[in-house]
Structures are given as structure tokens and as C-alpha cells.
Automatic annotation (TrEMBL):
Residues 56-65 have a biased composition (Basic and acidic residues). It is found in: Plastid, Chloroplast. It holds the Pfam family RsfS. NCBIfam families: rsfS_iojap_ybeB (TIGR00090). GO terms for cellular component: chloroplast. Belongs to the Iojap/RsfS family. GO terms for biological process: negative regulation of ribosome biogenesis; negative regulation of translation. The keyword Plastid applies. One of its GO terms (molecular function) is ribosomal large subunit binding. It comes from the Eukaryota. This is Protein Iojap, chloroplastic.
Length: 215
């Protein structure tokens, strides 16, 4: 009886081993399935038929008029928010038109503050202007920190994205270099500041010339 029981156990073990070997062979066959690789001619034919895919965009495609309106409103809002940041002494304010590079945003506003109280002041001022002038509030992005993010939707998510950095965080993440190919938008207060500096320099130069002529 013992020998019969041992024989049955051995048969069961052999059957299990056989099943495992068959499963392993099936897995190997699946792993070794040939993958068809498109030739250059086939790729060219597909490109001619369907056109070039330059970016993946999950948002529904807008008409050119709707898209132009969205761009104009986003630019107006981004410029107003940049001006608001400037009013509370944010520094090194830059506005990038990132839409040509990415599908999920139109404008990036980047600014620096020197302390967390100043970050809070900038955030508060931007929120006030966005709500008062455009009826927009930022999507929740956590508490203000060394890199504070404010995401404003106009027509789609992320039409205007505001980044407020402490200097060390801005240098570390270096978004300007990452989006260096994005067009830089000229801001009105930067132009005014440059004009004032030029006028002041011209006035100082004229004053020096007058003093020289008098002497």
C-alpha cells in the first residue's frame, strides 16, 4: 500500500512539473512573438495620409476664432497678474508664451520673492486681481511655499500658470532654461521702467554737459 501511495505521489509531482514546463514554454513563445516593424516607405505613406503629429492634445479642438479669443483673454489676464505682482515688489518677472511648446498651458508667469511673507502678499494680490477683473480663482495647489503654483482656467485647464519662487528655488528648478524656446512677452511696467531709466540717464548727461560748458 505504501508503495502504491508513493507511486501516486510521484505521478502527481510529474504531472505538476509537466504543467509548469508547458506554461513556461507558452510564456516563452509569447515573449518571442515577432513585432512588425514599419519600413520607411510605410511610415512615409502613413504620414502623407494622416499628417504630422506634433503634439498630443486631449482638449477638444477649437475653431481658429475661439482659439484666438482664448489667447487674447489669457494674455490680458497674464499681463494683469504680472502687473499685480510688480505692485507688491516681486522681482525678475517674466511672462512666457508656452502654447507653441506644450498643449496644457498658454502662458507661464514667473516671478521671485525674497521671503514667505512677500510670497503670501504676491499670492493675495494676484488672487484679488484675478477674481475682481476676470472672475477667476486659481485651482487648489497647496499652501504657499518656496515654489508656489497658481493655475488659472479660462477656457481650458492651465491657460495661465503663475510660478512664484524664492530665489534659491528658482535657481534650482530653472524653468526659464527649460522653456527657453518659448517667446518672451514684453510687460508694460518693464517698458516704462526702461523708458524712465533712459530719460533719467539723458537728463543726467545733459546736466553734466551744462556744468562743463559753464566751467
Amino acid at each position: 500500500m505504501a508503495s502504491d501511495s508513493q507511486a501516486e505521489d510521484e505521478e502527481q509531482e510529474d504531472a505538476l512539473l509537466s504543467d509548469e514546463e508547458e506554461e513556461t514554454e507558452e510564456e516563452d513563445e509569447e515573449d518571442n512573438v515577432d513585432v512588425d516593424v514599419l519600413s520607411n516607405e510605410e511610415i512615409d505613406a502613413l504620414m502623407k495620409e494622416y499628417g504630422n503629429v506634433v503634439r498630443s492634445d486631449p482638449e477638444p479642438r477649437k475653431s481658429s476664432a475661439e482659439d484666438a479669443n482664448a489667447d487674447a483673454e489669457a494674455l490680458s489676464m497674464a499681463t494683469a497678474l504680472a502687473t499685480a505682482a510688480n505692485e507688491v515688489k516681486a522681482v525678475d518677472i517674466k511672462l512666457f508664451h508656452v502654447k507653441p511648446l506644450i498643449y496644457w498651458a498658454r502662458y507661464f508667469l514667473i516671478a521671485s520673492a525674497f521671503s514667505m511673507p512677500q510670497v503670501n502678499a504676491i499670492v493675495g494680490r494676484i488672487e484679488d486681481i484675478a477674481q475682481e477683473q476676470y472672475g477667476k480663482i486659481p485651482r487648489p495647489s497647496g499652501k504657499p511655499s518656496g515654489w508656489t503654483l497658481m493655475d488659472f482656467d479660462i477656457y481650458t485647464a492651465g491657460d495661465v500658470v503663475v510660478h512664484i519662487f524664492l530665489p534659491s528655488q528658482r535657481e534650482f528648478y530653472n524653468l526659464e532654461e527649460f522653456y527657453a524656446n518659448a517667446p518672451l512677452v514684453e510687460l508694460p511696467f518693464v517698458s516704462e521702467s526702461s523708458s524712465s531709466s533712459t530719460a533719467r540717464s539723458d537728463a543726467e548727461g545733459e546736466s553734466e554737459e551744462e556744468m562743463i560748458s559753464l566751467s
